[in-house]
Amino acid sequence: MKTPLNYQVTKGDCGTTSLINALVYLFEREEIPIEVVVYLSSVTPDKVWGEHALRGGTSAAAMRFLASWLSMYAEQTGFPLSCQYREGSEISGDIGGAVLQCIRDGGVAVTGCCLGADHYVLVTGYDEESDCVRVFDPYYDGWPLGELDVEVVGVKPVDNEPFSCNRLVERWILDAPAGTPYSLEAKTGRDAVLFWRDEQSLPQNSSQNSSQ
């Protein structure tokens, strides 16, 4: 049975929640190993905010490590998951870029983005007709987003698809300047973890870009 995607329960666990949501989206509830959920939750968040440990959210280093750990777990246990970490110029709104290619190959992507501060969301789909990406933002908020001091443009709320998305984001937004809500240009740079069920074919260059 499929379950709805989850919302974060604190201000710092967007990365944790989005990683788990990638598994929730790709797998039935009965297929997801509880030890994977427990491990993801124990390793993230890992960033310090001021005097407060962990409140700064999840670092790119933790995302890189978890992509490697998930790949190793899948290889050792037979869990049908393929996982890669990508960063820098590969993470863009280009149709042929890593994120949209992953989506078009049947996968999902946990991507860093800007939402007032650095933030992680799950990208689950792309609609060619509207040129919009389907995003599940784990930060539950009213619309328009109540805590932002900038206008949210090119983004529409979706309130009737709890298993797949809660935002439609025009594709040009992904490459908008830093500070634009849902731009992939986070303060710490661009990064993403890409997920596929192993029934899906990986891109031809996956072997040279896989997390080590």
Structure notes:
With 212 residues, the chain is an alpha+beta fold. The protein has one domain. The chain is 25% helix and 25% strand. The C terminus is likely disordered.
Order of helix and strand elements from N to C terminus:
HHEEHEHEEEEEEH
The biggest sheet amounts to: 7 strands, antiparallel
Q: How many DSSP helices?
A: 5
Task: Tell me the β content.
Answer: 25-35%
Rg calc = 16 Å
Through-space gap between termini = 33 Å
Helix content: 10-25%
**On the 0-100 scale, what is the average pLDDT?**
90
Into how many domains do the coordinates divide?
A: 1
Task: Please name the defining characteristics of this protein.
single chain, 212 residues, alpha+beta, seven-stranded antiparallel beta sheet
Q: Any chance you could write out the topology, listing elements then pairs?
A:
Elements: H1 14-26, H2 34-43, E1 47-49, E2 52-57, H3 60-77, E3 81-87, H4 98-104, E4 108-115, E5 117-127, E6 132-136, E7 155-157, E8 167-170, E9 191-197, H5 206-209
Antiparallel strand pairs: 1-2, 3-9, 4-5, 4-9, 5-6, 6-8, 7-8
Quick structural gist:
The protein is α+β, with helices and mostly antiparallel strands and 212 residues long. The protein contains five helices and nine strands. The protein has helices at residues 14-26, 34-43, 60-77, 98-104, 206-209, and strands at residues 47-49, 52-57, 81-87, 108-115, 117-127, 132-136, 155-157, 167-170, 191-197.
